[in-house]
């Protein structure tokens, strides 16, 4: 109620009041999820089967809805995207989306105290920024792409993962990573674009195209995983938890080498051995 009253009192306005309104609206949208995640943290100790999934019945119900949406909406759209667009156009889209993530990655590099990675991320932001991220120039200069997020930052500083969660539309997560999503949304400067005209279209388009591009790039692998799994839910849960552990420890390869690297499905990506090589040189 207090936040709602404040929103009404802000009025039309100057830059400062507009920023207050944006922040309050964002909190009204994600605040309940953050509070809920904090409350669920206590549930983690209730899991006794090693899967850290005390809310499994609820999670499976959410997973079932997400899976239907994938099959009915996301899969057909991503198939058209994959087959209709030429590869150079898809590369431009992927490169641009990666570039937009750079400020969040850079902030988390610094928060983790990983200054070698921060140096590379900064260079990538500037070099690829010459063409607004649409062309991948940096990798050719020995500046590989890698991702960091606040969930990983919390893990680096010793925070436990908390209970496994299945978020509507967003997919697998846990208490720590859900908090991380909220914090990253505040860190991301592009989330503060005002909600009018072209800027609003660009902001909404980014949120829609990210899952489509991932699904298209991993179309066959996800379909194979779905068809080959006796328990698709449990398989995704295992992959997610292993990938997140590897991401927090900056693992060079997925812990479970028998399964495809689906870390990007959850908006994450692990470094590859090739990506790590120049960073070790930079650090030492």
Which terms summarize this structure?
single chain; 284 residues; mainly alpha; disordered C terminus
Report on the architecture of this protein.
With 284 residues, the chain is mainly α. It has one domain. Helix content is 64%, strand content 3%. The chain contains twelve helices and two strands. The chain has a two-stranded antiparallel sheet. Helix 3 (56-84) crosses helix 9 (197-217), helix 7 crosses helix 8 and helix 7 packs across helix 11. The longest helix has 29 residues, at 56-84.
Q: What structural category characterises the helix and strand content? A: mainly alpha
Shape: globular
Determine the mean pLDDT. Answer: 78
Determine the N-to-C terminus distance: 53 Å
What is the count of structural domains? 1
Widest beta sheet: strand line-up: 1-2
Q: Count the DSSP helices.
A: 12
Summarize the biggest pleated sheet: 2 strands, antiparallel
- Residues in β-strands, percent: under 5%
Helical fraction: 55-70%
Which sequence of SSEs, written as H and E, runs from N to C? HHHHHHHEEHHHHH
**Number of DSSP strand runs:** 2
The Rg value, from CA coordinates, equals 20 Å
Give the uncertain stretches in residue-range form: 1-13, 15-24, 31-48, 252-284
């Amino acid at each position: 109620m207090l936040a709602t009253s404040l929103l009404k009192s802000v009025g039309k306005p100057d830059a400062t009041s507009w920023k207050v309104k944006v922040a309050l609206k964002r909190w009204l949208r994600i605040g309940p999820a953050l509070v809920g995640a904090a409350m669920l943290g206590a549930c983690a100790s209730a899991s006794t089967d090693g899967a850290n999934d005390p809310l499994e019945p609820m999670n499976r119900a959410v997973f079932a809805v997400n899976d239907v949406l994938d099959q009915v909406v996301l899969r057909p759209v991503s198939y058209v995207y994959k087959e209709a667009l030429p590869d150079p156009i898809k590369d431009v889209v992927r490169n641009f989306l990666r570039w937009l993530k750079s400020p969040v990655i850079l902030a988390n590099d610094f928060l983790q105290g990983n200054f070698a990675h921060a140096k590379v991320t900064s260079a990538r932001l500037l070099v690829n920024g010459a063409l607004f991220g649409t062309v991948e120039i940096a990798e050719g200069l020995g500046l590989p792409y890698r991702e960091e997020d606040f969930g990983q930052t919390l893990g680096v500083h010793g925070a436990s993962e908390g209970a496994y969660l299945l978020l509507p539309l967003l997919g697998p997560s846990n208490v720590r990573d859900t908090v991380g999503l909220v914090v990253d949304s505040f860190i991301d400067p592009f989330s503060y674009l005002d909600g009018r005209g072209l800027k609003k279209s660009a902001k909404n388009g980014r949120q829609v195209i990210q899952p489509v591009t991932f699904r298209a790039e991993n179309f066959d692998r996800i379909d194979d995983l779905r068809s080959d799994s006796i328990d698709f839910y449990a398989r995704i849960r295992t992959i997610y938890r292993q990938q997140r552990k590897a991401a927090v420890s900056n693992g060079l390869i997925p812990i479970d080498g028998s399964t495809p690297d689906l870390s990007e499905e959850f908006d994450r990506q692990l470094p590859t051995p090739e990506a790590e090589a120049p960073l070790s040189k930079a650090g030492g």
